[in-house]
Amino acid sequence: MGTTARRGIDALGSVLRIVGMLIVLVLVLHIVLTLLDANPANTLAMSIHELADQFNLGLSNLFLPADPKLGIVLNYGTAALIWFVITSVVVRIVRRIP
């Protein structure tokens, strides 16, 4: 394979890693803002919450503990962990393309 193709594959891997880590960051920010009792009417907090809901993989009600904050940590934390693993595996596969 030529160096141009290799650079393209490496660039694709980098873009995929950045996108995956941004998704993980959104989920973790949602957890942190919830734990710190951020104002839910704040524009930033609302935006993070809406984005986190888009990327939670349907896990927003996987665990239903009595404490709603613990539920956020467990559910969105699980989604963040899954996104991290998915991102790592996909990037590794892309970078192994000969």
What this model shows, in words?
The protein has one domain. 74% of the residues lie in helices and 0% in strands. It is mostly helical. It has helices at 3-35, 43-54, 68-95. The protein is elongated, with a radius of gyration of 17 Å. Helix 1 (3-35) runs antiparallel to helix 3 (68-95). It is built from three helices and no strands.
Instruction: Give the terminus-to-terminus CA distance.
Output: 7 Å
Shape: elongated
**Overall mean pLDDT:** 95
**Radius of gyration over alpha carbons?**
17 Å
Number of helices: 3
Helical content stands at: over 70%
* Low-pLDDT segments: none
Largest sheet: none
Percent strand equals under 5%
| Helix-strand topology string | HHH
Count of folded domains: 1
User: Structural class per helix/strand content?
Assistant: mainly alpha
By DSSP, the count of extended strands is 0
